[in-house]
Amino acid sequence: MSGRLTPDVCIVGGGSAGLVVASGAAQLGLDVVLVERGLMGGDCLNFGCVPSKALIAAARAAQAQRSGAAFGIAPVEPAVDFDKVMDHVATVIAAIAPNDSVERFEKLGVRVLQDEARFVARNELQAGGHRILSKRIVLATGSRPALPPVPGLTEVPHFTNETIFANRTLPSHLVVLGGGPIGLEMAQAFRRLGARVTVLEAATCLAKDDPELSAIVLARLRAEGIDIREGTRVASVERADGGIAAVLEGGARIEGSHLLVAAGRIPNVEALDLDRAGIAHDRRGITVDDSLRTSNRNVWAIGDCNGRPAFTHMAGHQASLFIRGALFRAPAKLDPAIVPWATYTDPELAQVGAGEREARAKHGDGVRVLRWKFAENDRAQTEYETDGLVKVITDHRGRVLGAGIAGPQAGELIQTWCLAIAAGLKISTLAGFVPPYPTLGETAKRAAGSYYAARLFGPRTRGLVRFLARLPVW
């Protein structure tokens, strides 16, 4: 049926950000319309976080069979049935999909329109046969893989994260364009599942991460047999016998059976006709202020489409800020410093807040850098997971400015530091809590405690303790 709709809130996009707003607004009793032109759940459920982590889990199981010798378990080369591996990926998606389904949101009271939306006026959208007029329009249209301007790329078969999880053939040699988180996660997963893998990165792999920490990850990937080539520009790609060839600047050729393009993302905004609504935007996405409002005061943009860091948890956080600010009219501004990011290689890499370079640029000589190696952690020793480092940045007063972890379960361990930064905690709080033994979580306490080591065990303190020792026992 078609007609005119006047909801309290209209959301364009049924991915992570849009679904959080739709669920929250509907449960608060508002009239909500959600417009989604593709699959409910967006990139995260269908092409991103969920399938990639499912594939990584399968690859970890395969790697465990190769890695038992140190434990007295005879290592074996796993027999990988790649078709069944992809069945596992599909099963995981299917298990989560009902949480994001049209049926669930309709039961919550959301009217779901499975159409493409575009502006026809400042506060009015067209979606199929419906005209939607609303005082609160939320754009949550997400992003898609970027294709770099490499000659020949559009003429050769290639994967992106939107297509690789439909593939049922294990590549004999996977060539990956891009050494960011997506490229390296997939490189390691496919290598562990039995493929030969070459990563071609024009600049520096994991360039947005702390170099000291990313070096730990890259060393492990190289040790597992992944050919990682940084500072390598691809002049063109072409078909080759049995697959593809990447022709490098200088004329060298890298031939592979399959090609994965993981060279960043671009926002989905073209179909919206933003200019008709007076909404400022550029190649990075829709322009928003710290409250996520666009240049049209009745329109907000959240998630990947606004050009802020493209993480599912960032999208969900922005959705909660919209609910707080636009619906409850409470103060709600985005603070990027409290939002972490993680790369799910093995070892994992996670960071939150300011990195060392950023902190030194802002605070100068007042910055303290604390380090604690996983090799100093007893639980890591029991599991032979000693490659890793916790790195913490504080100011001269001991306030936590940032933290990064390269090591096992870094995505879990970073959460302690997320809380510290969000709550404005000083390093003394982290040094004073009591974690269970033996756990990887002890690394937080040990890193924090190192802040006081020089002062605690220095000459003045030792002199004071010697003096007190001579006094009568009390």
UniProtKB/TrEMBL annotation:
Which PANTHER family does the record associate with it?
Answer: MERCURIC REDUCTASE, PYRIDINE NUCLEOTIDE-DISULFIDE OXIDOREDUCTASE RCLA-RELATED
UniProt keyword annotations, A-Z: Disulfide bond, FAD, Flavoprotein, NADP, Oxidoreductase, Redox-active center
Origin superkingdom: Bacteria
Gene3D superfamilies listed in its UniProt record: 3.30.390.30, FAD/NAD(P)-binding domain
Q: Name one Pfam family in it.
A: Pyr_redox_2
User: Required cofactors, per record?
Assistant: FAD
By its UniProt entry, which InterPro entries does this protein fall under?
FAD/NAD-bd_sf, FAD/NAD-binding_dom, FAD/NAD-linked_Rdtase_dimer_sf, Pyr_nuc-diS_OxRdtase, Pyr_nucl-diS_OxRdtase_dimer, Pyr_OxRdtase_I_AS
Q: Family membership, please give it.
A: Belongs to the class-I pyridine nucleotide-disulfide oxidoreductase family.
- Pyridine nucleotide-disulphide oxidoreductase dimerisation domain location is 339-447
This protein is called FAD-dependent oxidoreductase
Q: Which residues form the FAD/NAD(P)-binding domain?
A: 8-319
